[in-house]
Amino acid sequence: MVSTQLLPRVRYTVLLLPLVAALAGCDLSVGNLTERATEEWTRSYPLAAGGEIRIGNTNGRVEVEGVDGSTVEIKAEKIARSATETGARELLPRITIREDVQPDRVSVETEKMNGIMIGAAFEVRYHVRAPKGAVVNVTTTNGGIGLTALSGKVIAHTTNGGVTAKELTGGIEARSTNGGVSIDFAQLGTERVSARTTNGGVTIMLPDSAKADVTASCTNGGIIVSPDLTLAVTEQSRRRLEGRLNGGGTPIELQTTNGGVRIKPRG
């Protein structure tokens, strides 16, 4: 005879068995999602001078290239992955992009999918051609950010991925959690420059004539300043450095927890 005190526990175990069996039969590894379906999404918008461009993404890389003119051109590649070709094709229409367009603002965002996704994955890769002087605000969770030839203020935030910027002439706020940050300035303006990451290195490349007030700090790593730069150090330790580059000017803040900081001239 079974004790009545054991009945609830026995019933609970029996109910769990189908769920455990179902999960054991599902391979959640993205490496096994060998089939894929793709679709290209393109848009073109006029933007007022000094307007803002916002790109919000969840999974996938975002690249923004500064160009002449007043038109924003966005090309997005939607990618659905599954273990079967049918599964990938069925997932593709669920990848949606929301638009919010005003004369002085263009906002595009990958919408989150409802429910739990098992045996499938998706990403959206954005390539944006933007007016050089526009304000650019980019966020993504799983993916890198690439920025080229922008002169307006830039905000670039990612969680799992790096931030790489080339030929900038304006200010930037770059953030990452798991990834490095690398910023190359063709010319240093007056807007504040801030680069931070938790797990990764921070590198900044400056023209020889750049004037800046530099603050750099790290927890596990070192700080290296190229001897080719004229930096008057006002405070220095293994984990922190402050100094004036060519007499001081634009505020530059560089910070990492697990990684080093490098400050060097362009080229």
Written description of the protein model:
This protein is mainly beta. The chain has two domains: 27-131, no CATH class; 144-267, no CATH class. 9% of the residues lie in helices and 55% in strands. It is built from two helices and 21 strands. It has helices spanning 7-24, 85-91; strands at residues 35-46, 52-56, 62-67, 71-82, 97-102, 105-110, 120-131, 135-142, 145-148, 154-160, 163-168, 172-178, 181-185, 193-199, 202-206, 212-220, 223-225, 231-236, 240-245, 250-258, 261-265. The strands form two sheets. The chain has an eleven-stranded mixed sheet, with no helix packed on it. Strands 1-4-7-3-9-11-13-15-21-17 form a ten-stranded mixed sheet. Strand 18 (231-236) and strand 19 (240-245) form a beta hairpin. The chain is globular and about 60 Å long. Mean pLDDT is 89; it is low at 1-29.
Model regions low in confidence, pLDDT < 50 over at least 5 residues:
1-29
Largest beta-sheet characterization = 11 strands, mixed
Provide a count of the helices.
Answer: 2
- Average per-residue pLDDT, rounded, comes to 89
The level of helicity is under 10%
Using only C-alpha atoms, the radius of gyration works out to 24 Å
Strands in their spatial order, largest beta sheet: 5-6-2-8-10-12-14-20-16-19-18
Q: How many domains make up the coordinates?
A: 2
| DSSP strand content | over 45%
Q: Ends: how far apart?
A: 83 Å
SSE order: HEEEEHEEEEEEEEEEEEEEEEE
Q: Structural class of the helix and strand makeup?
A: mainly beta
Q: Let me know the number of strands.
A: 21
Shape: globular
